[in-house]
Amino acid sequence: MLRRLVLPALLLAGLATAASAQPSPFDMTGERPADAPILQPPASTGTGGGPAEPAVTARVPDEFKRFIIPFSALSLTGEVDERTWSVYLTPAQAQSAATLDFAYQNAIVVAPEASTLSIFINGELAGEKPIGSAEAATALSYDLKPGLLRAGSNDIRVKVRQRHRTDCTVESTYELWTEIAPESAFIRFSSGDSATLTSLDDVRAVGLDARGRTQFNLVVPGLQQPSRTAALMRLAQGLALRGQMPAQEFALSEVMPDLAEPGQMTALVGTAEEVAPFLERLPDGASSGPVAMFMRDGKTKSSVLVVSGPDWPAVQEAIEGITQPMDRPSNVPRDVIATGRWLLPETPLVVTNTRLRFSELGVETSEFTGRRFRTRFSVAVPSDFYADAYGDATLLLDAAYTEAVLPGSHIDIYVNGNIASTIPLNSVTGDILRHLPIKVTMRHFKPGPNLIEIEAVLSAEPDKACAPGTPASNDPRFALFDTSELRMPDFARIGRRPNLAAISGAAAPYRNDAAAVPLFVDRADEDTLSAAATFLARLAVAGGRPLLVEVITSPLAAGSRNAIFIGAMPQLPKTVLTQVGVDPARQMSWGNAEDTGRPDDTQKAIDEWRTRLSGGAWRTQVTAFQTWVKQEFDISLSSLRILPEAQAAYVPPESAGLVLAQGANPSDDATWTLLTAPTAKRLREGASAIADVTRWQQLAGRVSAYEPATDKIEATPVAGFDFVQTQPASLTNYRLILANWLSSNIMAYALLLIVLSVLLGLATSSMLTRLGRRQ
Amino acid sequence: MSKIGSVAAWAFFSLCVIAVITLPVNLQTQLIVSVLIVTFMAVLKLANAGGRWRLIALAFGTAIVLRYVYWRTTSTLPPLNQLENFIPGFLLYLAEMYSVMMLSLSLFVVAMPLPPRKSSSISEGKFPKVDVFVPSYNEDAGLLANTLAAAKAMDYPADKLTVWLLDDGGTLQKRNSANLVEAQRASARNAELQALCDDLGVRYLTRERNEHAKAGNLNNGMLHSDGELIAVFDADHAPARDFLLETVGYFEQDPKLFLVQTPHFFLNPDPLERNLRTFEKMPSENEMFYGIIQRGLDKWNAAFFCGSAAVLRRKALEDTEGFSGMSITEDCETALALHGRGWNSIYVDRPLIAGLQPATFASFIGQRSRWAQGMMQILLFRFPLFKGGLSIPQRLCYMSSTLFWLFPIPRTIFLFAPLFYLFFDLEIFTASGGEFLAYTLAYMVVNLMMQNYLYGSFRWPWISELYEFAQTVHLLPAVISVLLRPSRPTFKVTAKDESISESRLSEIGRPFFVIFAVLFVALLMTVYRVYTEPYKADVTLVVGGWNLLNLIMAGCVLGVVSERGERAASRRVKVSRRCEFGVADQWYPATIEDVSAHGARVQVYGIDASTLPTDTEGGIRFEPYSGSGVAETLPVAIRNKEIAGDITIMGCRYLPQAARHHSLVADLIFANSRQWSEFQSARRGNPGLVRGTFWFLWMALYQTSRGMIYFLRSLRGSEAQKEGA
Questions:
Q1: CB B384 within 8 A of CB B336
Q2: Rounded to an integer, what distance in angstroms lies between the CA atom of residue A462 and that of residue A450?
Q3: What H or E segment, with its residue span, contains residue A420?
Q4: In the predicted model, is pLDDT for residue B720 greater than 80?
Q5: A769 contacts in chain B (CB < 8 Å)
Q6: Residue A599: inside a domain, yes or no?
Q7: What is the CATH classification number for the domain harbouring A718?
Q8: Beta pairing partners, A399
Q9: Of A465, A490, A515, which residue sits at a domain end?
Q10: Is residue A678 within 8 Å of residue A653, measured between CB atoms?
């Protein structure tokens, strides 16, 4: 499995500053620790061209900046809020003098005298300021002390403490916000060679652009040759797994793009002969063996990853040199899901009965003086998680509150934004909660990372007076201790087909395929291949390992293997559409015509008529009862159905720019997933949109459609599904699976219990007539 | 083979049901299942489905109960690190589990009670010799005379029947007592009873020392007699004429039979029935035991000896060296010992004796304390579950009978549990409102429905709870003391012939008023907390509702301890018997309307009663069932009269002068056992759960006010006494 490839490092001769360049072999035997051997590459120039740079005052000619915010927007709200993530720095970047710049703006109601914005790097306070920038964005700049930054991952933590100017109500805390624009936030490195990438590890330092996105450009002169597609997909996955950024997209083309864009990295892939025109000179050994190294010369003027060799098999070998080390056994679950680049600490993956301390989950002990305390952590469940109907996790809460907290205050637990539990804080004299068990329903858990938020809503006597101008009380009224624990029970584990949430969470079922995954790409053009690369790269990141790919040209070739189909709708084979439950009737017309929108309108009209006619007293009563039952117990008529709903073929709406659909193969023994759009261009745009972690995590159901106009994922729920065995047969697991299935098929449970009770009654009667005395 | 097959099938389906019940399904599912199953049970109940359907309905109920147990065990206990919540919470949990265990035991016992037996006749000329034992301790001669006369009058060949009065009140030990008054009284009693026995043709027997109480007395009787069978009647239990004919035949059929037990039928109400005025319309408390439970026990060959109204085989008793006297309930203990040695028992579900039961609340409690303590002693000394020689069903049956008497402990816990929350804010039961609805409420409804299904026409809704509540306060210390010192309690004879001449509070009624007051304060606290702490109104309302239920019970018990004064000394029995009424040698045609142990009501035709003064002596002439067809005269005195035209209704008091007169009284009251069955079946009606509940609520409200009035009156009374002093 482990292979040792010794490739010569790059020697840059064409630059005047080249001084200490020397061949340095690099090791691809495994994941290298973050503080890998430091290479001394030639310095280079390179300026990141962020669009808006309000903060930069003095421009040093060869300064280099790295955007640091991995979100499209960063808004810190409420009385306390924080975000922690990590940024990977190359050894050169870590060593150079650096300045942290960002600009922020806040709500006008935030009181500056009692509000602070702090930024920590690697746990040390890098800068802190009262929040007072309501009128316009204020730029801040902090010089980072030498030695603060490290080669490898650096933790960045932004934290606010905010207080309302005039109001002390809980409601007022929702008006508090501070925003940092991603384009304004970066680290400036003074040293000239900060932009230079030298070793393959530096792929991790690919960084972000001003919108929090990352792009890998693959320049492949022989792009159109179908035989190359599989290898390119492997390369995309290898790079994506090294990058691990929240939104990574791939652009495949035959021409060199603009280089030195922030958040972009370019790889030049081809035989020595093919890549030669793009470079001043070929890397050493490219004409004799596989080569994968960063190069920078007069022609590229920026670091480019050259993946080459004398012929295509050698290129493939070079690609494997990048990708292979990222592989891991397909049947061993990960301990953590890599989320560090946008959420620290890394999310632990729970596959069985586990207790996680808050301290491990990154929740610190905190004392709180305000009204609405919030904290969050993330925990991941595997793709075959099947406990959403019955399961309960338990939060063992260690917390305390003083007598200032009025009864009626409460702690709410949210899972992925849905309320999952509420605990009243009703003691008049305050209380210390020691491992208070709180049931948290697993209803809103889904495969992959799940965000759990704890919010304490505290009303207090002093807040009622709330005289403006009085100094904020600094007596803590609430404390949450990091000895609290999250206890995850053993939960039912079985795969379902279709289930896009499993794709989103852990690339299931593809992740577990040790053999090559059949990939159908309708045309080997730039757009389609870019979309395919982006999607497969995202899959690899979700699954934590690269997939082996085999390109197929006919659905039949997939056999009984789990397959992926990518292409523009009109070119797709009809069988694929039928199997994944998409209506083939609109194969040609989707995206061409104005939306007829009839089904929607009819439904709307019926609903309108229903409200118009709801005057009848009886009807009102029944409706009111239904609503009440729905509200209180979450039971609706549909949850009482006995037979599964009929599954209608999915008709892609005109508003959808991309559709991801899943179904079984014709022989019902494997999963087919289809990624499609009306055109190849929209396919590429859509794929790069859903590759963003915030959208990727919304994929669910049997069909998920991305709607560019609203920037939303519309998921069509699964109506009927097949179970796919993922765990070794075990009675306890089957019992839990049965519990979950029966919890979502209430009537089946009721019927089962009733039938068994009747049988038991009959058995009792027959036994009693035979036993004891009778007459 | 089919036995094993049916048990295996039952075990298989039980396992299936348990597997499905212990699936951790969600709340919504539980809610829907609860609603469906409760509906099904209600339909089955309304359709009055019996036989298999009855067991199916019980299986439904069991499913809900088990769901509750599963949920209660897995998700409602307070966390272990909150000891202040956990300890009371766990106690409450244990109390609930005890209730569930008792429910399952009683389900086992009464799952399929044996239908009434066909009467078994004795083969001609094979009448076995029967000794009738009437043990007595302190009952007066008049009472004994009725019983002995009735025993003597039983239809049975006279040469095969010997009636024994086993007198423990006139023993040598007592006659020679150092206490002079006691010694005199014992000697007088000895002489009086000996004379009575001679008159009646009954053997009088006493012994030297009062050893081993009733069991010792009976064993002494055995030493002096030799009949093949022994019938035992309490001093106040008079048998009907057909008693022996209805019971003795079974001994011939089964040589291993040691006991034929018959129900105890009471002529007078117990204090609850009297004070709540339910004797005429509601089935008595003991009818559930004799009407269902003994029949259920009988199915498993576990019907046990109840101390009286039973026939036993001498040979069997000799096998265990007589009656066992280790506990103070020698009857049940004896039966347990004999069952353990492979002897059989049967139960005949037909009242064949009529007797008296304690009239005052205090003596009622005294009697129940003896039962409770005795059963606890059996549980401790003879632990039936592991007693050798018993079949598994017998073990379970005896466990059910003995463990039942632990009820004061869980009752106390249920009584005080809500107060922990209402007064001290402790949360000993962690559940949300929805869970409470889906699990607890369903469990409670199903529990009531199952009770009603099992005992419907023998026990009205909430009456079991009322009886248990009324006994709990005084039985709790009794049960706990016997658990601490098992051999301490000694046999005390229950007084049954007291009467209450005037309305008053029971002398042991005080604690109930204290409890009522505390619960009432808790009710006020509920209201206060609902208003001041609206954020937890839901929990407060649920707990407050529970407390309200306790309060309603406690209020009803106030009525129980407020003893009503009673005009008639003992209960009247309707008879409708032709007779002649004579005054001053003038005889008029008449009908006896009803009789009691002390007098009769007679409808006389054509008498001019207006001139007759009260206490005029006269006579009733009628033909006794047991006689030779010749009419005999019972002397009476006129106590009151009511003239309606030609007909005069006269209340008379017996003036028995000779032993024969006692026989005539016995003939009037006890001769016809069919009357008693008719009386019982007249009040056996199932009002249903809903109607029964409303009826109970109304009664509780009324009794609470009556209790309060008695209480205020007693306060005024004691003030008046003080002033008087």
A1: yes
A2: 36
A3: strand A418-425
A4: no
A5: 112
A6: no
A7: 3.30.379.10
A8: A433, A480
A9: A490
A10: no
A743 and A717 within one domain? no
pLDDT band at A26 (very low <50, low <70, confident <90, very high): very low
- Taking the C-alpha atoms of residue A589 and residue A717, their distance in angstroms, rounded to an integer, is 24
Residues A712 and A578 in one domain: yes
Whether A763 sits inside 8 A of B533 (CB atoms) is no
Same fold, B130-357 and B573-672: no
Q: Does any domain span residue A200?
A: no
For A711, the token pair is 């920037």
Q: pLDDT for A370-425, tens place per residue?
A: 899 999 999 999 999 999 999 899 999 999 999 888 888 999 999 999 999 988 88
Q: Which residue of A has its CA nearest to B21?
A: A753
From B167, B331, B497, B667, the catalytic residue? B331
Render pLDDT for B584-620 as a digit per residue (tens, 0 to 9).
888 999 999 888 878 888 999 888 877 788 888 889 9
Query: Is residue A13 domain-resident?
Result: no
Q: Cα separations (Å) of A438 from A349, A707, B272, B583?
A: 21, 38, 47, 87
pLDDT given at position A30: 38
Report whether A535 contacts A687 (CB < 8 A).
yes
CB-hemisphere CA count at 13 Å for B378? 30
Residue A577 exposure: Cα atoms within 13 Å on the Cβ side: 21
- Count the domains in chain A: 5
Put simply, whether A23 touches B (Cβ < 8 Å) is no
Bridge partners (DSSP) of residue A155 are: A86
In whole angstroms, what is the distance from residue B74 CA to residue B542 CA?
21
Q: Is B155 a catalytic residue?
A: no
The span from the first CA to the last CA of chain B, in angstroms, equals 81
B130-357 is a CATH 3.90.550.10 domain = yes
User: In chain A, what residues touch B52 (CB-CB under 8 Å)?
Assistant: 761-762, 765
Q: What is the mean pLDDT of chain B?
A: 89
Residue pLDDT, tens place only, B484-536: 988 877 777 766 666 667 788 888 889 999 999 999 999 999 999 999 888 78
pLDDT at B703: 94
Contacts of A775 in chain B (CB under 8 A): 114-115, 117-118
- The C-alpha of B76 sits at a distance from chain A's nearest C-alpha, in angstroms, of 11
Q: Is A142 helix (H, G, I), strand (E, B) or coil?
A: strand
- What mean pLDDT comes out for the span A159-175? 90
Shared domain check, A578 and A475: no
Active site residue B131: no
CATH code assigned to B573-672: 2.40.10.220
- Give me the phi and psi of A584, to 5 degrees please: -70, -15
Whether residues A465 and A531 share a domain: the answer is no
* Domain locations along chain B: 2-111+406-563, 130-357, 573-672
Return d(Cα A164, Cα B401) in angstroms, integer. 70
For A705-723, letters b (16+ CB in 10 Å) and e give bbbeeeeebbbbebeebee
Preceding omega of A345 cis (within 30 degrees of 0): yes
Burial per residue of B539-559, b for 16 or more beta-carbon CB atoms within 10 angstroms, e otherwise: bbebbbebbbbbbbbbbbbbb
**In the 8-state DSSP scheme, what is residue B534?**
G
Q: Which domain holds residue A753?
A: 730-770
| pLDDT-based confidence at residue A57 (cuts at 50, 70, 90) | very low
Same domain as A361, residue A317: no
Domain termination site, one of A270, A299, A326:
A326
- Does A348 share its domain with A381? yes
A interface mutation test: which of B14, B18, B23 has the most A CBs within 10 A?
B23
Report whether A350 contacts A488 (CB < 8 A).
yes
Mapping DSSP onto H, E and C, the string for A463-523 reads HHHCCCCCCCCCCCCEEECCCCEEEECCCCECEEECCHHHHHHHCCCHHHCCCCEEEEECC
Q: Are residues A284 and A250 in the same domain?
A: yes
In terms of domains, do A527 and A662 share one? yes
